[in-house]
Automatic annotation (TrEMBL):
Its main location: secreted. Gene3D superfamilies: 1.20.1250.10. The chain crosses the membrane at residues 7-28. One of its GO terms (cellular component) is extracellular space. GO terms for molecular function: cytokine activity; erythropoietin receptor binding; hormone activity. Belongs to the EPO/TPO family. This is Erythropoietin. It comes from the Eukaryota. It is found in: Secreted. Coiled coil: none annotated. Keywords: Disulfide bond, Erythrocyte maturation, Hormone, Membrane, Secreted, Signal, Transmembrane, Transmembrane helix. GO terms for biological process: erythrocyte maturation; nucleate erythrocyte development.
Length: 183
């Protein structure tokens, strides 16, 4: 049987059965997508925050094609720790997911209205980061967060950074699945 799969060479090793079993399991699992795992390593979130700050810095240096018109609904970024800690992890996740959804929509609208290619690229990258965080949370985006309106790109980026630094960080830092994976 091993020769049929071209694995006959492994039969002479002490751990050949284990090697073959692992290879078969690897081969069999290729069609099954691996589940998205939570971002428990906060360095990933820190990287997303750094990219958002870089976008904010680039905006300050932008001379043309960086203006946006209209208003955008964004989540509130302030955290009342007493209220936050009384919420269960599911409520916190829904609130964060709702905020990420609002930020993703706002960044998408901004990206479409910018004429500066560099800023468009930076905004697209930030939107991608938001989408990645949203996919990790696996909670439905509901109306679970308080909102406000902003009318400038600098305000939007400030809210984006503060939301990541605040509610997203709190959620990921205290998520039970992340506590289990820590040493």
């Amino acid at each position: 049987v091993l020769r049929r799969f071209g694995l006959g060479i492994f039969a002479i090793h002490n751990n050949s059965l284990l090697v073959v079993l692992l290879m078969v399991l690897q081969w069999a699992g290729q069609g099954i997508p691996s589940p998205v795992r939570p971002i428990c390593d906060l360095r990933v979130l820190d990287h997303f925050i750094m990219e958002a700050r870089d976008t904010e810095t680039a905006l300050r240096g932008c001379k043309a094609g960086c203006g946006v018109t209209g208003t955008f609904v964004v989540p509130l970024t302030n955290v009342d720790f007493l209220v936050w800690e009384t919420k269960d992890i599911w409520e916190q996740a829904v609130e964060v997911q709702s905020g990420l959804s609002l930020l993703g929509q706002a960044l998408g609208a901004v990206g479409e209205s910018l004429s500066n290619a560099v800023m468009q690229s930076l905004i697209t990258n930030n939107k991608s980061n938001i989408r990645s965080l949203g996919q990790v949370l696996h909670t439905p985006a509901g109306g679970g967060t308080a909102t406000r309106k902003v009318s400038s790109l600098s305000e939007l980026l400030s809210v984006h950074i503060n939301f990541l630094r605040g509610k997203v960080r709190l959620l990921l830092k205290n998520a039970p699945v992340c506590q289990q994976s820590s040493p």
